[in-house]
Amino acid sequence: MKKIFSISMLFLVTFSFGQKLYIVKSDDKFGLINESGIEVIPPKYNFIEDFDKVHPSWAKVELENLYGFVDKKGKIVVEPKYESIGDYNEYNQGWALIKKDGKFGFINEAGKEVVPPMYDKIGKFGEFTKDWASVESQGLKGFITTDGNIIVPLKYAEIEKFDGVRKNWALVKDKKDKLGFIDKSGKEIIPVVYDSIESFTKKKNEAAKTELANLD
After folding, report:
1. Rounded Cα gap, residues 164 and 207, in angstroms
2. Residue from 82, 71, 17 nearest 48 by CA
3. What does the pLDDT look like over 137-148, one tens digit per residue?
4. pLDDT tens-place string over residues 200-210
């Protein structure tokens, strides 16, 4: 590695294996040197974030409006190819939300894509039921699990919360406005073929109210 000359030193960012690392700037590009003045990361990035801020021992880097990660040895661990990278553990333990070509997915703590960036929207795990997150693409919705697998195919225009009409069931609507139910195993328990579905409890309560009114 070569020494760095004619570079504006900015600030200390971390200790790496007992050595201090400094962010440096040259020709509006950022890199890292150690306390001996040796390049750890050449000044080629538009931005380098602090180490350990998003991921232990990694720093988020920006290159031409795309983001990735480098480690403290200067090795690229995640290629700068994402429009954004969120914080780890915000959606699922050990995962970070990514965006590429306008689509969302996840990477894990090793930097590997566990959910390819293919969705227009991704909800947080647990909003509908434990270990599931809602996903949407081209106006159709479904669910993925915490291992990244699709548990409910993306074929519904709307999915209501579970337990709204019956315990462990969720009302679903397809793009033809037909209604049915799925359960918490992801199975379509009532086919999506109905124009309307009303709660039996609701009907029973309304009948009881009518009977009491007649008695009065």
Report:
1. 20
2. 71
3. 999 999 999 999
4. 545 444 543 43
